[in-house]
Amino acid sequence: MKEFELKYGCNPNQKPAKIYMKDGSDLPLTVLNGRPGYINFLDAFNSWQLVKELREATGLPSAASFKHVSPAGAAVGLPLSDVDRKIYFVAEDAELSPIACAYIRARGADRLCSYGDWAALSEVCDAATAAYLKEEVSDGIIAPGYTDEALEILRTKKKGNYNVVQIDPAYTAAKQECKDVFGITFEQGHNDFKIDESLLQNIVTANKELPPQAKIDMIVSLITLKYTQSNSVCYVKDGQAIGVGAGQQSRIHCTRLAGSKADNWYLRQNPKVLGLQFVEGLKRAERDNAIDVYMSEEYDDVLREGTWQTIFKVKPEVLTAEEKKVWIATQSGVTCGSDAFFPFGDNVERAKKSGVQYIAEPGGSIRDDNVIETADRYGMVMAFTGMRLFHH
């Protein structure tokens, strides 16, 4: 296939639209089902790069959940705990492959932002992954292959119009890349910077104990940031992004946004939230929305008389601000990555509130001493990578 015609570009008025190879070669992909659009392909190609690099760097099956050209979540294929299964709506007895676990964890980082996502898998999509995806609201998927059973399942989604793309795993991008803005062409070298453990050797804090899992988490955060619209900050725990703050003009706003998402992820594990009893027939997205509002300051929107009865079997007790604060304070072992240097120690202060103990950032600020001093105050481990990861 030399080119693929799109219905329209970013918006319906942007026609005609297509994707093609500038050198006239065949596209390194096959559309197995549906008709992906312009933004779908932007998500597909960015997310595929992320999971491919994450697989190469960690040796673990990897997955991502993308929305509007940034990851809502990314994860490696570690087993799900019993709590994970509950907060991600997975049956207790469901048999899950490593790649299914990777996608479920990627999707679970921020289930509200993952609504209507583009899924990316580093491995062949199997029936277990497809069966989970079938029950989620999603726009499409990209993977290096699909089992017959998985493809049959996915072709039943969206009345048969679910977008399924197969990518050639051997394809590599050209060394130079171009894009047009306002009719003017920009050209730059493709960002083929390799992220692996060798990037984590410059530990600048007094505490230099970096356990193996924290190294994996740093790699997950950095590769996720490489394909997140800048400025961006990413919180990771146990190989799973739990909060991504993307596209903010201020670094501290990235840190706060990612931290608030990480806090919400952890709050979903609070006993009061786990104990919510939903009425029969409530869809996953409706449960996600109800949980999000219940955990927020607007909890009365789901607890007021006449409303709670449509959502819950039993009226829940309020999860108070003090209870939330106490619960979040028990979070620990979290890694925070940043795509550019922290200019002030306030970013470290905010990260600490969400249980961050490990930080990976480029370094290079004129206030690095203040940032390091703040990290040392909390006994954190901070690695300076020396490499900025802006993505636009």
Structural account:
The chain has three domains: 3-167, AICAR transformylase, duplication domain (Cytidine Deaminase, domain 2), CATH 3.40.140.20; 193-267 and 328-384, 3-Layer(aba) Sandwich (Cytidine Deaminase, domain 2), CATH 3.40.140.20; 275-318, Helix Hairpins (Orthogonal Bundle). Helices cover 33% and strands 21% of the residues. It is built from 13 helices and 15 strands. The protein has a six-stranded mixed beta sheet with strand order 3-8-7-6-4-5. α7 (251-267) runs parallel beside α12 (346-353). The mean pLDDT is 97.
Shape: globular
The fold-level CATH name of the largest domain is Cytidine Deaminase, domain 2
How many helices does DSSP assign?
Answer: 13
What is the radius of gyration computed over CA atoms, rounded to a whole number of angstroms? 21 Å
CATH architecture label name of the largest domain: 3-Layer(aba) Sandwich
* Share of β-strand residues: 15-25%
Order of helices and strands: EEEHEEHHEHEHEEEHEEHHHHHEHEHE
Number of spatially distinct domains: 3
Largest sheet: 6 strands, mixed
Distance, first to last CA:
28 Å
CATH top level class name of the largest domain: Alpha Beta
What's the helical proportion of residues?
Answer: 25-40%
Task: Give the tally of β-strands.
Answer: 15
Based on the model shown, name its key terms:
392 residues; alpha/beta; Cytidine Deaminase, domain 2; Helix Hairpins; 6-stranded mixed sheet; 5-stranded mixed sheet; 13 helices; 15 strands; 21% strand
